[in-house]
Design goal:
The chain is an alpha+beta fold. It has two domains: about 70 residues; about 100 residues, Beta-Lactamase (2-Layer Sandwich), CATH 3.30.450. It is about 50% helix and about 20% strand. It contains four helices and eight strands, in the order ααβββββαβββα. Strands 3-2-8-7-6 form a five-stranded antiparallel β-sheet, sandwiched between helices. Helix 1 runs antiparallel to helix 4. The longest helix has about 50 residues.
């Protein structure tokens, strides 16, 4: 019975370690998705010129490219590259307000159809610069990492199960050998 308890405890510990590994890797990937939008938002909010007639339009319905939108003090989009249904994109209520209060904000913005974007908002005088990019490539990497971690977890548990079975059969053979030695040769 103690053998089962010991091997069960090992399986629980291994599972917890692999779950923690997945959580850390997922967070590293998700936070990394803020890097490019963060750099662009910082660059634009630090005074780099914003072209109000931007020609490099990013259709948020189909592109994974980094985009930006500048909002005036009334939260109306006034310039940018990020287009949604033909117009400059508008984030959910409260996103720009938080950036105005705190100076910056990071959110995951999800549209009704499930598309998700990593966005960074920065205050630039009386304007707010929002920069973002699709999370689709990041989420695909997270799925691949998850599959690899799952496969590794299964392999480690199978090795543990193999070790448990080897130990069990070795102990059983040892008990049989001791019994045979204690009873002596048969037929004597």
């Amino acid at each position: 019975m103690t053998r089962i308890v010991r091997w069960s405890a090992i399986a629980v510990i291994v599972t917890a370690l692999f779950a923690a590994l997945y959580l850390v890797m997922q967070q590293i990937e998700r936070q990394g998705a803020d890097d490019a939008p963060g750099r662009l938002a910082s660059q634009l909010s630090d005074g780099s010129s914003v072209d109000d007639s931007a020609t490099d339009q990013v259709d948020l319905a189909s592109s994974d490219a980094v985009f930006y939108v500048v909002y005036d003090r009334s939260d109306r989009p006034v310039a940018g590259t990020g287009r949604l249904d033909g117009s400059l994109a508008t984030p959910p209520a409260g996103v720009l307000d938080q950036a105005r209060r705190a100076g910056s904000n990071h959110v995951t913005w999800q549209l009704g159809d499930g598309r998700r974007f990593a966005t960074v908002e920065r205050r630039a005088g009386d304007r707010i610069v929002l920069a973002g990019q699709s999370l689709a490539p990041t989420e695909a990497r997270i799925d691949r990492i998850g599959a690899l971690i799952l496969a590794a977890w299964i392999c480690v548990l199978l090795v543990g199960l193999g070790a448990f079975l080897v130990e069990r059969f070795t102990d059983a053979a040892s008990v049989r050998a001791r019994r045979a030695a204690a009873t002596g040769p048969r037929g004597a």
